[in-house]
Amino acid sequence: MRHDTQISRLKGVGTRKTEALAEVGLFTVNDLLEHFPRRYLDRSTVSYTTDLQKDSQATIVGKVTGTQMRRGRKRSYFEMVVADERGFLKCRWFNGAKWIQKRFTKGDVIAVSGKVDFYGGFQMVHPDFDILSEEGTNPINTGIIVPLYPSGQKLQSAGLDSRGFRRLLRPLMDGLEQHLDEFLSDELITEYKLTGMSQALRDIHFPEDMDSLKQAQYRLKFNELFFMQLLLAVRRQSMVEAVKQNRFEGFGEYLESQYKKLPYELTGAQKRVMAEIWDDLKSSHPMNRLLQGDVGSGKTVISLLAAAIAAGNGYQSAIMAPTEILAEQHYKNAIQFFEGTPIRVVLLTGSQTVAQKRDLRKALKEGYYHVAIGTHALIQGKVHFKNLQLVVIDEQHRFGVLQRGELLEKAAEADVLVMTATPIPRTLSMTLFGDLAVSILDELPAGRQKILTRKVDVHTLPKVYDFIKDELNAGRQAFVVFPLIEESEKIDLEAATLGFEKLSTQFKEFKVALLHGRMTSDEKDMIMQSFSRNEIQVLVSTTVIEVGIDIPNATVMLIENAERFGLAQLHQLRGRIGRGEHRGVCVLVHRKLTQDSIDRLNIMVETLDGFKIAEEDLRLRGAGDIFGTRQSGLPALKIANILYDGAILKEARKAAFTLIHQDPHLRKNRHRGIREIILEKYEAFSNLAGIG
Ligand code: ADP
Ligand code: MG
User: Fold this and answer.
1) Residue 217, CB half-sphere, CA atoms under 13 Å: how many?
2) Architecture of domain 255-441
3) What atom of ligand 1 comes closest to residue 300's alpha carbon?
């Protein structure tokens, strides 16, 4: 059986099965082989009915000894009794009872999984189930490891429940070796201690013991991560091979003068990073560097110093921010930074008039401006530069490889610096930014005091307000943030507006202002400007201030309904304070607490470390959420998990990068298999990697 044979040509597969399989994207034998089990049953994962505990999750395997439609108080439900050799369990279905009823026959050996209830005896309501065999013995007791497959109603109706998949797959295991080429070289197999491909596929579907299953999983996860990293390695390689048109002769005339004018000494980390950037700039290959630095570590000044070098060499720079507010802030910083030099800075935003934009673009194209600041629109669409050489992308942790690629299409040979506030666990930055060299700002500017974080319930608010008043009287300022409820921007705004009114009365001796995403950017800008001049003391806002805003005099961050925020978001918000010499205080106000939100808020109280918070956030929310691989623009992972397979990822990355280092274009004969897989399976991504 060739691996590209259509499933429809397999024995026992008719139109119904073919259609159901096609619907979930399974067409070929190879697709089928890669339809990996979602879990396995064996004695270590299956409980006896006598060992069940109320409210726990459990799986039991037993024989169906009774099935019956029963009349409930409101409507009828289906009840099934499953017995193992020690006792029994009742399963009940209130929904879809008729459909469920048809699935089972007395005597079937089945596995049921779900939450254990106690209702005159142990029971499960709407458990997941898998029929293991008809009239059979309990396979778990014979020491067999039973694979359970991902399925769905349509597949099940077509006979493709776990059992159906096992039946389909079993015959494919014969002669797997003859039809399946090993695509990794012997060297790689040996060096990384990998199981052969056909063995791995056999063991992932029909493992003989836990050990061979583990090895199979390792190999298949390695595969996925290896190819992902290979794409990144090839991409990195093509960037490394690119040659810059524009050379940097030296620091130019602005670096030193502007550096000397800074009101502070750079931290050791900032100096080190500047040296790394300078190495890249002066090299004949374009820079592709990620600058990771926790909130407040001082990334902005790095981008400005780099822009000063570019300007000193006669090149233009573009600095991009994710929001207009942030772009405005960078613009102000840049104007101040380049004061006293002939360097001209321009701000391009969405809210400028068409005529304004046209004029500014023209001036940019003619090289009148040296430093352009704006949102992402800056280097997309109609904007052209005369000699753009430095591109800085600030706070870019939300964008993956692909988006970044699109963003930079126009600046293929430019020097690129991507800046992000740290919270990206190492495993994720290896995927999202796996093609970039990395610099880290791991030191906060001197004189910063630790931010104090407290979680309080609403009843404590009066005390908190007193505290805020003290701070305001001492000349400080405060942020009050209301949560973003994504479903409804309107409710969001209402909460903030109500809060604003309340706080205006509460702090009537002070100026309180409201800022939200629906304002025009002129309005937003005016408010931010007044806040930064301390004409406003309390800024009530929605999450629009989440990233990047820098007001060193603000010392209080009060977050309402803090339980609704993700950890990474709370960390970003908290990062808005404690940026100057005064101690910052962050107050997390909660209303409804679940165990989960208590855990999350406690993490915030306990640590200021962005890395730790990011890891926890990922653990609690799952990778898909914020930095999901979905957004990365890289191939989806079927079996590997970025969160849990960090160790394998590291190995795979090492293997991939070493390989590309030795054989940049995969021309060597022993790498032919790998090349073929890339072209075949990762075709859609080969342009990302520049393989053709
Ligand atoms: P982030 O890394 O979060 O973008 P910023 O660049 O906004 O941080 O810097 C935070 C604050 O720290 C700013 O007010 C900036 O002027 C100040 N800052 C930056 N570097 C230093 C330094 N070496 N010493 C003192 N203050 C600094
Ligand atoms: Mg910043």
Assistant:
1) 17
2) 3-Layer(aba) Sandwich (3.40)
3) 6
